[in-house]
Every structure is written in C-alpha cells, then in structure tokens.
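ok new one. same drill as before - structure tokens go in, u give me an amino acid for every spot. 248 of them this time. try not to just spam alanines like last time pls lmao
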C-alpha cells in the first residue's frame, strides 16, 4: 500500500489528512495518508527510512523553507518562491530521490484569477511577510499585478498598516490576507485597514478558511467589496499535490 503524509510542527487540525483519506476511500485507491509531526526537520530522513512505502509528502509550517536543503531537485517555481510544500518521493532501487514543488501558488492563482478584471485590478497589497506570502506574491505577479507587502514592523520593501490610507486602498484594490489575524478562535479580529474606502472594485482574499467568513471579509463586504476565503485554494492545492506526486 502506498503512503502519503504531511510533515510539520505542531500538526493540530489538518485539512490534508481528512481530504486525502476520503479521496482514497471514494476512489478505491489502495493508499493511506498520515501526519508526521516532527519537532525538527532533521528528523525527515528518519521518517523516510521508517516508511519505505512513502510516495509523497506535503510540507507545512515551519518547514517550507528549511526542507529545501534535503531535496535533490526543486521546481523552478518553488525555487523562485523560496518555499516547498509538496515533495515527490522517488524510489530508484535502494536510493531515494526527493523533488520539491510549490502548490500554494497554483491553488491561489486558479482561485483568484476569475475575480480579477484587468482594467480595474493592477495593484495588490499582501498582508504579512511569512512563508505563504512569498507564493502569493509570485502568483499575483504572474497574473500581471504589482505588489506591496504590508508588515506591522519596519522592514525593507514593506509598508506599515498605519501608512495605508483610503487613497492607498483605492489604488491597491486587491488585498490578500496572509496573516493569522481573524482565525478561529479570534474571530472578532481583523487587519487594521480603512475598510470604508472599499467599493465593488475592491477584492479581499483571505487565506483563512475557519471561520468561513472572517471579520476582514465581513467588513469589506459591508462596503461592496468582493470577498473570498482560502478553502477553494486549499482544495486546488490538494489537487495539484496529487498531480505532482504522479507526474511522469
């Protein structure tokens, strides 16, 4: 039986394990998906050694960047983003080869693209500077948008929340939340933005999917903004993982 899994730490509620095990059951695939909660990325070789039937892994925080030094090949996209969240485990006799990909960017671009109108949507704000934000930046640029990162702290090539005026929101009318602000159980929180400057040309995309309507989305929608959560991205990302694992 083939095995797939997720590495990260800590692994609380994982979308992947329930999604893939349900898929295997529904499609009568002889495989299982497991969580590998490892407190250090240095334990990856041990996971591979003790699970010889592994064919693929997903990677979540905090290892999307650290895992790259363990890989034999990295896709050009994942290299450009600087983060890997899918690993194909290739067995060549007794030798194992690992190839890394990034499915975040595929899931995100396929999910947001139908919302974009070229004549209105030219510039985007990316809230947060963590691992996911790099894939979002890559995805938005590939769709032809200019991007600016927003951080709570003074960092090179970022702007701070207190500098986001109504004028900035009118100009950068695609806003993607890559922070955990507003995630369950802190559902009353939202990024500090001038929501009243938004209108029906504003797009608010939240990577959070629990709750399914965050305060960020609610407040924007009050002023006519088009809003979407991260669930579809997650599904598309899972489809992409499966494709990568079975790529010839």
């Amino acid at each position: 039986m083939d095995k797939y899994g997720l590495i990260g730490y800590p692994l609380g509620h994982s979308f992947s394990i329930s999604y893939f095990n349900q898929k295997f059951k529904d499609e009568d695939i002889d495989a299982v998906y497991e969580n590998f909660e490892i407190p250090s990325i240095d334990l990856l070789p041990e996971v591979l050694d003790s699970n010889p039937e592994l064919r693929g892994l997903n990677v979540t925080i905090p290892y999307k960047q650290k895992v790259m030094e363990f890989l034999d090949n990295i896709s050009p996209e994942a290299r450009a983003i600087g983060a890997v969240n899918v690993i194909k485990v290739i067995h060549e006799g007794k030798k194992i080869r690992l190839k890394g990909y990034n499915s975040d960017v595929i899931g995100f671009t396929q999910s947001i693209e139908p919302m974009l109108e070229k004549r209105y949507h030219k510039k985007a704000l990316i809230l947060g500077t963590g691992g996911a934000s790099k894939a979002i930046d890559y995805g938005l640029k590939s769709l032809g948008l200019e991007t600016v990162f927003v951080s709570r702290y003074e960092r090179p090539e970022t702007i701070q929340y207190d500098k986001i005026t109504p004028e900035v929101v009118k100009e950068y009318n695609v806003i993607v939340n890559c922070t955990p602000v507003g995630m369950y159980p802190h559902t009353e929180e939202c990024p500090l933005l001038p929501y009243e400057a938004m209108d029906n040309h504003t797009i608010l995309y939240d990577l959070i999917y629990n709750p399914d309507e965050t305060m960020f989305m609610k407040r924007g929608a009050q002023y006519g903004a088009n809003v979407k959560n991260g669930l579809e991205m997650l599904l598309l990302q899972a489809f992409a993982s499966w494709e990568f694992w079975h790529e010839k």
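The chain is about 30% helix and 25% strand. and btw The first strand starts at residue 2 and ends at 8.
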